[in-house]
Amino acid sequence: MMKRFGINVKNIDNVEKVIIQTDTKEYVFDAAEVTVMEAQGQKTFQIIGEPTVKTRGGESEGPLKEDIKLIMEQTGKSEAEVRKALKETNGDLAEAILKLSQT
Q: 34, 45 in Cβ contact below 8 A?
């Protein structure tokens, strides 16, 4: 019936990751189920899954304190230095450790 009205719906197979970024947050869906519906030249995507939510700039709503503690232990740097490095590396722990190890 939907095809009769010019609506086409299909699943996107083998989705590994979906990332939605706003000005303040980042939503990361790992192994999400994604469906795309096309109607009147417009595409609508439906994402099914549980996202990990991070505040943009490296601060997550989850285990941020644990990440900071880990980086402080690895580099010997202060919490302020670690937070700055995480912000500069968009929350990439490995990159932040490398950055702090070089200074």
A: yes
Residues of the chain with pLDDT under 70: 1-3, 57-63
* Cα angle: 26, vertex 29, 30; to 5 degrees: 130
Q: d(Cα 58, Cα 84) in Å, to the nearest integer?
A: 9
State whether 39 and 69 are in the same domain.
no
For residues 16 and 51, membership in a common domain is answered with yes
Query: Is residue 85 exposed (0-12), middle (13-18) or buried (19+ Cβ within 10 Å)?
Result: buried
CA distance 83 to 80: 5
Size (the chain), residues: 103
Backbone angles phi, psi at 31, to 5 degrees: 55, 45
pLDDT at site 100:
94
